[in-house]
Amino acid sequence: MTLAALAGALADGSVRVVDLTHTLDPDFPVIILPPEFGQCARFRMEEVSAYDHRGPAWKWHNISMSEHTGTHFDAPCHWISGRDVPFGAVDEIPPERFVGPVCVIDCSEATARDPDFLMTRDHIAVWENTHGPIPRGSWVLMRTDWSKRKGAAYLNMAEDGPHSPGPSPEAIRFLVEERDVIGFGTETVGTDAGQGMHLSPPYPAHFILHGAGRYGLQCLSNLDLLPPTGAMLLAAPLKIKNGTGSPLRVLALVEEA
Question: Which residue out of 78, 123, 206, 210 is catalytically annotated?
Answer without folding.
Answer: 78
